[in-house]
Amino acid sequence: MSALIGKPIPAFSLQDDQGATVTAKDLEGHWTVLYAYPKDSTPGCTTESCDFRDNLARVQALGAQVYGISRDSQKSHLNFIAKQSLTFPLLSDPECALLAPLGAFGKKIMYGKEVQGIIRSTFLIDPKGVIRHVWPKVSVKGHVQDVLEVLAGLQEKG
After folding, report:
1. Which of 2, 3, 115, 116 is deepest in the core (most CB within 10 A)?
2. How far apart are CA 37 and CA 63, in angstroms?
3. Is the pTM of this model over 0.90?
4. Annotated catalytic, 96?
């Protein structure tokens, strides 16, 4: 179990793909799925983002919104959104201001070498801004379905 569960999402102020500032306060009032992914337009990240896109109506039917977050620039995000017809905002966190406190940035093994980078993770945040579930080291296949099931289950519990 993650040490983050039951704690408020760390304070942050990041730009979305449109250049608007998004803060922790903006997440309040809705359930939020925040997924951290390594890089725009890479195979795994494209698959994951498109899966959230294809299931967005199901997420929204549960009263939740979706945000993707990576270190990519606003321009990179705009290109990724256009190319993949994404229908939710992507946040730019080049300094890892939110990624690091969430544990979504750090050491990982890539192609057999230890590197610093984004650790594919997803965070489920309740309408009060409290982290209710964490998926560390996400495997893309079947992930969105798991998010939907956990979100529905948490809402049933109240």
Report:
1. 2
2. 23
3. yes
4. no
